[in-house]
Design goal:
The complex is a heterodimer of chains A (258) and B (482). In chain A, a hairpin with a 2-residue loop joins β11 (217-222) and β12. Chain A has a six-stranded mixed sheet, with helices on both faces. In chain A, strands 2-1-4-5 form a four-stranded antiparallel sheet, with helices on one face. Chain A has one domain (4-92, 166-257): Rossmann fold (3-Layer(aba) Sandwich). With 258 residues, chain A is α/β, with parallel strands linked by helices. Chain A is built from ten helices and twelve strands. Chain B is an alpha/beta fold and 482 residues long. Chain B is 23% helix and 35% strand. Chain B has helices spanning 3-9, 35-44, 49-63, 104-112, 142-147, 155-161, 163-169, 180-188, 429-437, 442-458, 463-477; strands spanning 26-28, 87-89, 126-132, 135-139, 151-154, 193-197, 206-212, 223-228, 233-241, 248-251, 254-259, 264-271, 283-294, 300-307, 312-315, 318-321, 327-336, 341-350, 356-366, 370-379, 387-397, 402-411, 417-426. In chain B, strands 5, 6, 8, 10, 11, 13, 15, 16, 18, 20 and 22 form an eleven-stranded mixed sheet that branches. In chain B, β3 and β4 (135-139) form a beta hairpin. Chain B is globular. The chains are: A alpha/beta (258), B alpha/beta (482). The interface between A and B is medium-sized, with 33 and 27 residues. Bound molecules: adenosine-5'-triphosphate and magnesium ion (MG).
């Protein structure tokens, strides 16, 4: 049984169809990269998998560990091991990063029948992950993402992933806005979490990230469909010839067609 | 509109937990208000002549006054002749002299409300004065406080036992003619709490009054007077609940605080009167006048309030900063859900030199709730070097509710500094989704976001009450999403 099976998934926002029949299978331990022009539906796919109600699923099926994922609430998906690193992490003023993460971890642990951690155990546990991502303690005591720089937000997402230890991590453009050192750090963090039990879907525009996080598969998404799949070489190919080389309309033309 | 926005707007009201009625025989006077009623109340309380005269003066003045209409609240006209102005649980003699004499039904009521009156259960160290309908029924820890010279108990008792103190300070901060509801209260107030902390004494425990409206169609008009003499300190907490009834009940209290040289009073309120049902039927009209006078140098008065109950709240705890270097503070969380309305805020009047005031107001509106902040900062010519900082933040849950801010500012000298910040935010669908994606349920997410929003105010509450207030806010918001 595959960890995740997406079959002919269609999704709309308002009257507009954004995902137009996506099929993708992710097995345990695999890393899949998804690339594609702006507006092609990458974030939409990520959000639909996480259960965002803004998008209506109008067709298709998604199985996660053999179960109907689309029937689950967003929190149940999270508790079952799905983690989304947001393209635009959200600010929550007044709620400390630590407090937030502890609440999240305990909600997940509770679901999995594990004991909840108290503040002390929690701190011990996160220390190690903080070193992994070179997170400043000050950042953890600050309100969730509030006033964080773009790069700090992205790093915070990966830090949360490291603490929550998901089975399926979906990283939506986590590399955008990172300087080269931060990029290496994040990639290092992600690689440290790779393992036979953890799968990842990595959305990115840049081959550069894939030099550090080497994917098993690369898919190209255009206008709501996967138009090409291949191995890691596909990303290099794209880097050289662009989407036009694949016969895919670039952003302006795509927009012009709508 | 997306499904999530709709969820935020869907209100399945959590039932009000304190809405039961205590079956107890009451000694009530007939409905309506007249000079005779004022005399009757005064007679029932065996009051001295001067107090009766004081009441009558207030009553006569009230007759000349008009109900205020400037507040941003809407309600049908109140028929003041249809209210019962005095109701007390029937007691064997004149009133309970000790806890043993308190009706067991009453004690059960307070136990249900989570306020054990029995002293052995009060090791936590909070002295409680409990007001049921119109009279104060029991005060705990009295002996211990007395030994330190602290007077704490019911207002009626203070009138009998410490008439000079009462006479000296009653109406000295809120005069009988101050406003419509204060005048009404002065005429008919039935009981309340009185506290005097003598020179140099730091009250070692939180003092607390618990107000409960039980009888039907009664108004509750209590009067609280707290005096901190030179160098004294006291922290005082007020809590309130009422049964669920489908008619509106009027609560028009007056609270007066006096702080002399170097004295400090911290007054915290957790107001949870019955807010009415989800269609807006019933609930308490909470029209309250609260004011503190920092009379002495370096004195300080802090108001902290968490307002979650009442159909309508109309209150502006204020400070008169008379003594040089005196400090006034106002920290407020006001939550309106369903059809609740709140028009609340503060007034800081700077009179003395180098006086400072801080205002932090957090308004949360959900459902069809309407929340208004109304604040006034007045710096007189005499208040050289005065400073004020105000911060008013509003949070909206859903888009049928409203938040309004009316800051008034008057500065009469050039050496003063005034700073004002305001913000309005919405609990975003994106914030809730972000939390849910991390495994946190919608309800927990909303309560977490709201607590984050109110943090600066909760931090001002005494520890044990901060926990209470958080729980209360959680309950008041329960069902407000998802
Ligand atoms: N909430 C929404 N309302 C309206 N349109 C939306 C919404 N969300 C997405 N879309 C539209 O759907 C299309 C796909 O958006 P999506 O964010 O999935 O693209 P993307 O592939 O992640 O792009 P990028 O590379 O720029 O992040 C875009 O045209 C976008 O405008
Ligand atoms: Mg995107």
């Amino acid at each position: 049984m595959s960890l995740l099976e997406i079959k002919d998934l269609h999704a709309t926002v308002g009257d507009r169809e954004i995902l137009k029949g996506i099929s993708l299978t992710v097995d345990a331990g695999e890393v899949h990269a998804i690339m594609g022009p702006n507006g092609s539906g990458k974030s939409t796919l990520a959000q639909v998998l996480a259960g965002r109600e803004l998008y209506a699923v109008t067709g298709g099926q998604v199985l996660y560990q053999g179960q109907d994922l689309l029937a689950m609430s967003p929190e149940d998906r999270a508790r079952a091991g799905i983690f989304l690193a947001f393209q635009y992490p959200v600010e929550i003023p007044g709620v400390s990063n630590m407090y937030f993460l502890k609440a999240a971890l305990n909600a997940i642990r509770k679901q999995q029948g594990m004991e909840e951690l108290d503040a002390f155990d929690f701190l011990n546990m996160v220390r190690e992950k903080m070193t992994l991502l070179d997170m400043d303690q000050a950042l953890l005591n600050r309100p969730v993402n509030t006033g964080f720089s773009g790069g700090e937000k992205k790093r915070n997402e990966i830090f949360q992933m490291a603490v929550l230890e998901p089975k399926l991590a979906i990283l939506d453009e986590t590399d955008s806005g990172l300087d080269i050192d931060a990029l290496k750090l994040v990639a290092h963090g992600v690689n440290a979490l790779r393992g036979p039990e953890r799968s990842m879907i990595v959305v990115t525009h840049y081959q550069r990230l894939l030099n550090y996080i080497v994917p098993d598969y690369v898919h190209v998404l255009a206008e709501g469909r996967i138009v090409k799949s291949g191995g890691k070489e596909l990303a290099l190919e794209l880097e050289e010839s662009g989407y036009a080389g694949l016969g895919i309309a670039d952003e302006e033309e795509a927009v012009g067609k709508v | 509109m997306s499904e999530s926005t709709q969820t935020i707007e869907t209100f399945a009201n959590q039932e009000y937990k304190w809405g039961f009625v205590t079956d107890i025989e009451a000694d009530a006077i007939p409905r309506g208000l007249s000079e005779d009623v004022v005399r009757l109340i005064s007679a029932k309380k065996h009051e001295p002549e001067w107090l009766l005269e004081w009441r009558l003066k207030a009553y006569r003045h009230w007759l000349t006054m008009k109900e205020p209409t400037w507040a941003n609240v809407h309600y049908p006209p109140i028929d003041y002749q249809d209210i019962i102005y005095y109701s007390s649980p029937k007691a064997k003699k004149d009133g309970p002299k000790s806890l043993e004499e308190v009706d067991p039904e009453l004690l059960k009521t307070y136990a249900k409300l989570g306020i054990p009156l029995k002293e052995q259960e009060l090791l936590a160290g909070v002295a409680v004065d409990a007001v049921f309908d119109s009279v104060s029924v029991a005060t705990t820890f009295k002996a211990k406080l007395n030994a330190m010279g602290i007077i704490f108990g019911s207002f009626s008792e203070a009138v009998q036992e410490h008439p000079d103190l009462v006479r000296q300070y009653l109406g000295s901060v809120v005069p009988t003619s101050d406003n419509f509801f204060a005048a009404l209260n002065s005429a008919v107030f039935s009981d309340g709490s009185f506290c005097y902390v003598p020179k140099g004494v730091r009250c070692p425990m939180e003092l607390s009054t618990y107000f409960r409206i039980n009888a039907k169609d009664t108004g509750q008009f209590e009067r609280t007077l707290i005096v901190a003499d030179e160098g004294a300190y006291v922290s005082y907490l007020e809590g309130c609940t009422a049964p669920m009834r489908d008619t509106n009940q009027l609560h028009a209290a007056v609270v007066e605080l006096v702080a002399l040289d170097n004295a400090q009073i911290k007054y915290s309120t957790v107001q949870n009167w019955y807010p009415g049902d989800k269609e807006g039927k019933g609930g308490i009209y909470n029209f309250v006048t609260k004011r503190g006078a920092c009379r002495g140098v370096n004195s300080k008065i802090s108001w902290t309030q968490v307002e979650t109950g009442s159909a309508i709240t109309w209150k502006y705890p204020s400070c008169l900063l008379i003594g040089d270097n005196s400090v006034g503070e106002f920290y407020s969380v006001a939550l309106t859900n369903n059809y609740q309305q709140a028009d609340t805020g503060t007034k800081m009047i700077h009179i003395g030199k180098n006086t400072t005031s801080t205002i932090v107001s957090k308004g949360i509106s959900a459902g069809h709730g309407q929340n208004t902040y109304r604040g006034g900062v007045k710096i007189l010519k005499s208040a050289a070097g005065a400073r004020n900082y105000s911060q008013c933040d509003s949070m909206l849950l859903g888009d049928k509710c409203g938040a309004h801010t009316f800051p008034y500012l008057e500065v009469k000298n050039t050496s003063s500094q005034v700073e004002h910040e305001a913000s309005t935010s919405k609990i975003g669908e994106d914030q809730i989704f972000y939390c849910r994606q991390r495994g946190i349920s919608t309800e927990d997410a909303v309560s977490m976001i709201v607590h984050g929003f109110c943090k600066e105010v909760f931090r001002e509450l005494p520890m044990e009450f901060a926990v209470e207030a958080q729980k209360l806010l959680g309950v008041s918001l329960e069902g407000s999403v998802g």
